[in-house]
Amino acid sequence: MDEVPDMGEELQKYFDNLIARIDRLKAVTMTDRDGVILIQASTSGTPPKVLEPMLSTTFAAVSDQVSRLGLKRNKSLVSFFELYQVVQFNHSPLITTLVADADSNTGILLSLGDELKEIAQLVATVIHER
């Protein structure tokens, strides 16, 4: 039981460091498919609206629909808005969402997918064991 709080602290540090490491990254969230936030980190100026869990639940629904088209499982989705871009990864059963400035490097954000997948698998395993 003692390792779960330590793991939570380590994951929070990892997410905080990710924001510091990636230029123009504003927020990172990891949620379940229902939008329950498991881990979240953001810069101080990030509007609460972009941290809404609704993004994750919408992504989950879109991913399910796309898979029915015979295109297999959706791995990621990139959405561009006037001020922000949102990159979401399907790390089933979890969803990882990155929110960055609209003009940030999308390729760098997408390249984080494998790194974040390992973290999501670790979190999913701990949740499943509880």
UniProtKB/TrEMBL annotation:
Its Gene Ontology biological processes? Answer: cellular response to amino acid stimulus; positive regulation of TOR signaling
Bilayer-spanning residue ranges: none
| Listed GO CC annotations | Ragulator complex
One Pfam family matching this protein: MAPKK1_Int
Domain of life according to the entry: Eukaryota
* Gene3D superfamilies attached to this UniProt entry: Dynein light chain 2a, cytoplasmic (3.30.450.30)
Q: Which family does it belong to?
A: Belongs to the LAMTOR3 family.
Q: What is this protein called?
A: 2875_t:CDS:1
